[in-house]
Amino acid sequence: MTDPSRIRNFSIIAHIDHGKSTLADRLLERTGAITAREMRDQVLDTMDIERERGITIKANAVRIEFVAADGHTYQLNLIDTPGHVDFSYEVSRSLEACEGALLLVDASQGIEAQTLANAYLAIENGLEIIPVLNKIDLPAAEPERVSREMVGVLGGTVDDVIQVSAKTGDGVGELLQAIVDRLPVPHGDRNAPFRAMVFDSYYDTYRGVVSYIRVVDGRVKVHEPVEFMRTGHRVEADDLGIMTPSQVSRKTLAAGDVGYLVTGTKEIEQIRVGDTVTSSVNPASEPLPGYEEPKPMVFSGLFPTDGDDFERLREALDKLRLNDSSLQYVAETSRALGFGFRVGFLGLLHMEIVRERLEREYDLDLVATAPSVEYRAGLTDGTIVEVRSPQDLPPTGKLAYIEEPFVKVMIITPKEFVGVVMELVQQRRGEMGDMTYLTEDRVEIHYTVPLSEIVFDFFDQLKSATRGYASLDYEPNEYRKSDLVRVDILLNNVSVDAFSSIVHRDRAYRYGKAMSERLRKLIPRQLFDVPIQAAIGSRIIARETIKARRKDVTAKCYGGDITRKKKLLAKQKEGKKKMKMVGQVEVPPEAFVAALRIDE
Amino acid sequence: MTVTAEPRRPDDATLADELADTRSVYIHIPFCRRRCPYCDFAVVAAGESRISHRTYVDAVLQDMRSEAPWFAISAINFGGGTPSAVEPGLIAELIRRVRDIADVTTGAEISLEANPEDWTEEFGEALRGAGVNRITFGVQSLDPTILGSLGRTHDATAAIQAISGARHLGFSVGADLIFGTPAESLQSWRATAETTLSAGIDHLSAYGLTVERGTALSREVAAGGPAPDQDDQADKYELTQLLAAQAGLVQYEVSNYARPGHHCIYNLSTWAQGEYLGFGVGAHGHRDAMRYRNVRRIEKYVELVTDGKRPWAGTERSEHHDYRIERLFLGLRRMAGVAVDETVVRFLATSDGQRYLGAGLVEVINERLVVTTPLLTDTVARSVLSLSPDDC
């Protein structure tokens, strides 16, 4: 068992593309945690989606051993965390398992809004921060300027900043030594009753729920009875051990250790990320603090293309939720799409990822509806209703007012883009707060903006308006009254609930027109003319027509064409299968998220 | 008193079905002067290969010899490429070889595709001597601008002269036309169709220009060039139906029209799942519940055959569920449709089947399922192909 004074637990805070996964790869290589043969890029990102997109979604942990300058071997536990704003809850859980963090910043880019937000979060949690400048080998690197920026935010001196190149490995040895020297020894009491925090978990078909834990107090031995304090779930520790990154069984984990715990639990609701696990023989009196129900920001309907898959979708969501406690869902029914779920997500990237995982890992064909934020409708009788889906909006007669969620937005941009950023945020009904200069040419601006205005495509627009230089972070603020209306879409004279959207009144006409046009382009021609109308209540505000299909036949089909033609039709048939019948109209799944891609 | 039987209408249901039992031979002549921008057939343009016509025909003759004996051939069809690009003597040799390996029935259809510019009276005489009784000219258009954009080298005069010359020699004469080239106006198409029909053809194949993968045309379209338009092609298609009917030609398939008695046996047979042997590069065959296709490259073809091997590039079984589905998707291209059987009944019971019946897109007439709007045949075909084996 390692003496706690030889243990350091840390995570890496970084913006996407600032080189976190590459640095993790180098640390593992340098300490011999993995051999050159096992080495591949992004070794800690195990999901296909993570590797393809070059991002980290799930937290992961690895133990590495490092012989420090004092000649002792130290156990360093690296807890890898996601970098995208959608996953800040995952970040906060990981941070709670650590005493320190590396704040990794690209020397050619400078500090970004999200990194800054996460750094503040780490400081609030009492973590020791080591500022690290990455990519110092790049010709465009400006180590002096970016170091000054980091010191401006974190305090300390420029000498505290460690310069590395995760690509070449330069400076990695110095960094490892700094981790040993500067990060605190794990807190916690080895003689107290066993307490550990579950900072992540996943479902394994054979072993059941595998939890990643950080032991805070005491120790746990294999085959000992344990209890998950918030759910009261009592069970035996079948297996426990460390990640190197592959799992290696150990007999004991003790305060300061980071490892995994297998209890053979199959009921996924029993083990919640953020929960505290203790000994059921000698239980701790209090669970660890910090557990929070994550709050979804965006809601979207998910429906199986094939109605028979509803139960499979439920099971898949149940399993995904095990890895992702932020996922929330309730069954819902749509006239157009049948039985499905209204699912809450942390943001748009989270939504895309969940959907992709459901389709890929659970082989489901899904139709997703345009995402919506959660509105609050005040009724004339004084009650307040939560509206997570446009079709839940009560009829105008009963409605006294609608409130929408606002967020506090922080944008960091080079000063030459301040003008375009201001214009962009103003178009999104944003209210400007204060503005501070981080350095002479980089500015931090604060706004209050309706969540619905920034959650969908704002980030892309901000990036393109500032040639990629601006960065963004936001946090929930308050609900405020807004002049909002529901725009309905009628397809073939029938209102399609899945196409409805809540928009600001000033924007309704333009939205209705753009949406009808977009649907006309997305929905293939049918056997008859199909009118598309946009309406507010009974008032039609826009109209388009999908002309009847006139030609759908290949000119030739002779002896030589039969096999090929059969293959072609079979392929087209697959596309047809994905279509959803809405009344008499075949609608492709993309149409249900058309509202997302309206170019205004 | 002699009784002359009325020639049978090409869309006759009995005819459509009985040709399921006929056998045909298809021979591919790949040689062309140049490659047309829209064509994706197995073609050898001038200068693309050192293999001579003689060497190629010898290989085909040898391949025929390795085919198991066959009886009662009702049609021999020469396609291309450009069959008229080779000496008629070579065509004669190939026909003789078919007669060696099989029994060619009396009155069998022996047809050949020809370019109008290749036509001469001697050429016609020689073909007639070889036994050819049917010629189809690749007219495509009579509008010089359109011919140019299709990469064709003949002109309207050559086309009309070829048609009348062939009629004069007693051939059953057909024309292939292409409508809906992006630069073509409705007037241009009307002129082409009317003039070609009034030249006295017995058979018309009118095809909407199709962008096939891997062609020069598809590259132009991918690069932002003008593409054929659905509505334009539909307008021209409907005009063609009208003009052909006025000229006394009966539509019997999506793209085919014939004077009674002049239907194409070979084609009707393939749409009825009849068997055919395919010889030459890129040719396809169907025999004993197996469909096969030959290699497309002429060097490879000659090499394989010379080594005593069959020149197949691939085969697939066509049986059980697939075969029953295939009967519908091929047969529904015909105006005669398909006889109602269990598969048809199951199809009509599906939600798509019900929808199409309701919209009048398909009908059951005289116990046959027909597609009322041939231009939407693939809409129906995709639904037919979606039937699962459990459904039928």
Number of helices of chain A: 13
Mean pLDDT of chain B: 95
Which CATH architecture of the largest domain in chain B would you pick?
Alpha-Beta Barrel
Which regions of chain B are unreliable across 5 or more consecutive residues at pLDDT < 50? none
Tally of domains of chain A: 5
- Strand residue percentage of chain A: 25-35%
Rough outline of chain B = globular
The structure class of chain B reads alpha/beta
Quaternary state of the chains = heterodimer
Placed side by side, the strands forming the largest sheet of chain B appear as 9-10-8-7-6-5-4-1-11
N- to C-terminal distance of chain A: 61 Å
Helix content of chain B: 25-40%
Question: Could you name the CATH topology of the largest domain in chain A?
Answer: Rossmann fold
Tell me the structural class of chain A.
alpha+beta
So what's the CATH class of the largest domain in chain A? Alpha Beta
